[in-house]
Amino acid sequence: MIRSFLVERRSWLLLLLFIHLLPPLIAAIDVSIPLLPVLYITLLSALICLVFLIVRYPRETSFYRQLRDWEPSDGTAALAESDHPLARIVETALSRQARHYKREAARQGELLEQEKDELLSWIHEVKTPLTAMQLGMERVSDPTVKARLAYEWLRIHHLLDQQLHQRRLPYMDNDLFIERTKLVPIVVQEIQPLRSWCMQKGIGFEMDLQAEYVLTDAKWLGFIIRQLLTNAVKYSDTGDIEIISREADGQVIVEVRDVGRGISAKDLPRIFDRGFTSTSMHQDSAATGMGLYLAHKAALNLHIRIEVESVSGSGSTFRLRFPVANEMSRMGGM
Asked: What is the pLDDT of residues 12-31, one digit of tens each?
């Protein structure tokens, strides 16, 4: 702070130095002027200036210290307490700027909210022709064409579903209803849309739900399981997908196991990152990298911990660890 103080006032300090050196210089040139009295006066004047700078330093720099330590979240009230003219000018300018940004932020927030509502409305409108398409596909007689159409329909359906839940995630807390939820209906409901795709690939499902109930939000749990099952089917070419639930130490654990291509060790730490697909299968244009990201974000809000174990070429196991009852009660849903 001292260095900044001296640098800012260096022009004034150089002027004072010149004024103090000028009389001795003149006395040294003009022999008619006694040098010692001039030096005495100059030294006394310099001493007074030095004392003045020392006394004024805390007062002159108090505003700069406040400005250095100032946090924008604290507002400009702290700066307004200073009677320094520069402090009042800066406080006024910052207040004007803060009001401008608040108005701009409010306007942008309204636009984003309007855009979100329009997108959600569009997604719901698109689902109507999708339902009609699904009914129309039942009339297709060629099994190959029908399977291909069903697969493309499912892709569109899941992409729209991801967009819908992505827009709802920031407001998820307002949409939660925590209750004692039965697992079987949720799992069966998420398996049904995948049946034609699984039949095409020769994949089946095995369920062993020993723990029948969990404390969670049924709608968001269905979304999480949907992402895990979709990934399991997408990256499996054969074999069955196992869905297992059990209870350990008062905690319900749900596992989704597949025998698909698995995940390489270098990809495991990044699979829940936004937009991450794969380093080993980077040419897979069908992957968006959003499914596991959204599932992980939703699980965090539900206090569900997602764990994954995988060996490249030998399948993957995704594990959902549900919180115990007293943890759920703190969420305010019980």
From this structure: 889 988 988 888 898 888 87
